[in-house]
Specification:
- Helix content is about 40%, strand content about 25%.
- The chain is α+β, with helices and mostly antiparallel strands.
- The protein folds into two domains: about 80 residues, OB fold (Dihydrolipoamide Acetyltransferase, E2P) (Beta Barrel); about 170 residues, de novo design (two linked rop proteins), CATH 1.20.1440.120.
- It has a five-stranded mixed beta barrel. Strands 6-8-7-9 form a four-stranded mixed beta sheet.
- Helix 1 runs antiparallel to helix 2 and helix 1 runs parallel beside helix 3.
- The longest helix has 20 residues.
- It is elongated, with a radius of gyration of 20 Å.
- Bound molecules: zinc ion.
């Protein structure tokens, strides 16, 4: 069977001197491992389209569960990432989340769109990194089935909000008084408004909103807490990204 699809190359593992095994996040199938003959030779016609962080159009042969690269043509290469270790680490984290959170073929198209937009904003610096990371985490979680249920109808009037990760619900102080469970994460109203914007805006608008530094920090902390809860572990790539951030802070 022949499959034509676009996708972003996450990695290329050496199989031999000239052949590689590509990990590609594709628009139609989600994550695929694809055997790519000859791509490590820079003169090979598919070499450019198979580079890491290349967004390319692929023609693949599928035989049972094995995929073999036939042709690929480069649409966009996010080469700026290679020059910035912090941005590169964050992009690696985005890719890692797409692998860890088992995105099915049904949500592959929207996940790829989120990924390409986020990496594009990361390269051109149009969206601040802290915010970009939080929005990517939250939108991805919603796409793969971890969207929290907002059970509260007092958002206008209340100032304190709570999130029960275990139950997957968000509610206010008033709603809380009716509950006896104590495993809530608290956050203030500004964060609630940001979350609503991130959950319900069209993708391109989700990245843009006016917010204070304090709220922005709180938003990024709660998004990270939630993704760590969903993953049930701290991904190695996230640890690397945070170490790089810390070291750069020390340098300046
Ligand atoms: Zn309420």
């Amino acid at each position: 069977m022949i499959i034509k699809t676009s996708g972003l190359v996450f990695s290329c593992t050496d199989i031999s001197e000239k052949d590689g095994l590509l990990t590609i996040f594709t628009q139609s199938e989600g994550l695929l491992r694809v055997f790519a003959k000859g791509v490590k030779n820079p003169k090979n016609q598919n070499a450019k389209g198979a580079l890491v962080f290349a967004y390319s159009e692929f023609v693949l042969y599928k035989n049972k569960d094995n995929y073999v690269l036939s042709e690929c043509s480069l649409k966009k290469l996010f080469f700026d990432l290679k020059n910035d270790i912090k941005k590169f680490a964050l992009a690696e984290y985005f890719c890692d989340l797409c692998m860890e959170l088992s995105c099915t073929a049904e949500c592959a198209d929207s996940v790829l769109t989120l990924l390409l937009n986020s990496i594009n904003f990361l390269c051109n610096g149009e969206v601040e990194e802290k915010r970009l990371k939080a929005i990517f985490e939250m939108r991805l979680l919603c796409m793969v089935g971890y969207a929290p249920n907002i059970i509260c109808s007092h958002i206008e009037s209340e100032k304190k909000f709570f999130w029960s990760f275990e139950e997957g619900i968000i509610f206010c102080q008033k709603c809380r008084e009716k509950k006896d469970d104590s495993h809530f994460v608290y956050f203030q109203k500004g964060v609630m408004l940001c979350l609503l914007h991130v959950f319900y805006s069209v993708l391109k608008k989700a990245f843009f909103f006016e917010v204070s530094e304090e709220i922005s920090t709180e938003l990024s902390e709660i998004c990270e807490k939630y993704i760590l809860f969903c993953l049930e572990k701290l991904p190695q790539v996230l640890k690397i990204y945070k170490d790089i951030c810390k070291n750069l802070e020390r340098t300046f």
